[in-house]
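Justification of resources, computational component.

The compute hours requested in this renewal are based largely on the per-chain cost of generating structure records like the one below. Each record pairs the submitted sequence with a full structure-token output. That output is archived, and it is also reused by downstream analysis tasks.
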Amino acid sequence: MSPITLIEARNAFEHVKNNGALLICAYDSDEKFHKLRLDGAIPLSEFRSLSATVDKNKELIFY
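The structure output for this chain reads:
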């Protein structure tokens, strides 16, 4: 497992925009996700269902 690192919001945005990272909203509630989502983010519930198929080298950004 790779170490956890903190990155600035502008860097996260660039990584997601360039398809270099997957942005995941870590709220347990899909309702909270829809109220507070960031552009390009997926809800935690969707990530859980996709986790087996996500490229193991893909950068994951949780917020």
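The chain has a mean pLDDT of 91. Residues 9-62 form one domain.
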